[in-house]
Design goal:
Two copies of one chain form a homodimer. Helices cover 40% and strands 20% of the residues of chain A. Chain A has two domains: 2-70, Winged helix-like DNA-binding domain superfamily/Winged helix DNA-binding domain (Arc Repressor Mutant, subunit A); 85-144, 2-Layer Sandwich (Dna Ligase, domain 1), CATH 3.30.1490.190. By secondary structure, the first copy, chain A, is of the alpha+beta class. Chain A has helices at residues 2-11, 18-29, 35-46, 51-63, 133-143; strands at 33-34, 68-70, 78-80, 88-92, 98-101, 120-131. In chain A, the strands form two sheets. Chain A has a three-stranded antiparallel beta sheet. Chain A has a three-stranded mixed beta sheet with strand order 5-4-6. In chain A, helix 3 packs across helix 4. The first copy, chain A, has five helices and six strands, in the order ααβααβββββα. The relative contact order of chain A is 0.12. At the A-B interface, strand 4 and strand 6 of A face strand 4 and strand 6 of B. Bound molecules: manganese (II) ion (2 copies) and zinc ion (2 copies). The first copy, chain A, binds a DNA duplex (30 and 30 nucleotides) through residues 14-20, 34-36, 48-53, 55-57, 60, 76-77.
DNA sequence: ATCAAAATATTGACAAAGTCCAGAATATCT
DNA sequence: AGATATTCTGGACTTTGTCAATATTTTGAT
């Protein structure tokens, strides 16, 4: 319930506000959600909340690592509350579906590129692009002779 | 020279125009360039070219796989002419530098996630995030006691 | 409970990166 | 030369997000 979310905020040194709770709940319950969709959910929950408060909350939560951003090409930034496991994503080129994928080799193996060139790497962001089963079926329909 | 670029266009079924040549040259000679920078270079080369023509050319070239888009967080879309080798990128969180990195394990090994979930995967996009050597040095300066 | 300081939220303007439009003009290919 | 493809103009418009000044809320110490 709210106790859980409040604690998460407090543990990270953040004031607990209705706005942040609504945003954190929206992201927790809807993985890979856009800021716009968060706004809709939060407005439904609170009656009113400013767009700026949404962005403030999302940015603060991301800064404090309570949530994570992903930014697929051609889509606005998306947010998820599943953090700390360096998991990857699988995105359909046709319909935009996003799936979570566990790290391919084990615990964050992808942090090791073939040559780090002196960089101090803290994250490997991996997106697999393809066509989801539904969109494949759809395409097959179309190709029927 | 121009012969090379023209052939690349023709081979992909595209009309050869001064605008497309200028755009393709800009991208080929400046890996990870932004649309805005392409506009500057093309204007310098041709005297005049519309912003719309830049985007038309970039989108057409990307559609035909003559160039590739990458879209790092917090930066506008970037374009590069190095295609077909599924190479990765290393980006500095501080200054935004972008480096090419060869595929980690061999020939596009990353196309295999731990579980493809029925997706038909055609690309694995990998971005390593970190701090470049210069930005590390800068930070160290600051931390000097 | 009360109160002040610090942190947040609201509001409205603003900005960046693109897209869309639609007819007229031009260039390319065969 | 003729058919087709591309570009130009240039403003309006959209989406995603930030900025800055002001108002409100939260927190922790009385
Ligand atoms: Mn995820
Ligand atoms: Mn590259
Ligand atoms: Zn799909
Ligand atoms: Zn750097």
């Amino acid at each position: 319930m709210n106790k859980d979310l409040s604690d998460r905020l407090r543990r990270h040194g953040l004031h607990v506000t209705a706005q942040r709770l609504a945003v954190l709940r929206a992201v927790s319950e809807h993985p890979h959600i856009t800021a716009d969709a968060v706004l809709d959910l939060a407005q439904a929950e609170l009656g009113a909340i400013s767009r700026q408060a949404i962005y403030d909350a999302l940015n603060t939560l991301a800064d404090k690592n309570l949530i994570r951003r992903i930014q697929p090409m051609g889509s606005p930034t998306r947010y998820e509350a599943r953090v700390g496991d360096n998991h990857h994503h699988l995105i359909c080129r046709i319909c935009g579906r996003v799936e979570d994928v566990d790290c391919a080799v084990g615990a964050a193996p992808c942090l090791m590129p073939s040559d780090a060139m002196g960089y101090e790497i803290d994250e490997a962001e991996v997106i697999y692009w393809g066509r989801c089963p539904a969109c494949q079926a759809q395409a097959d329909m179309h190709n029927q002779t």
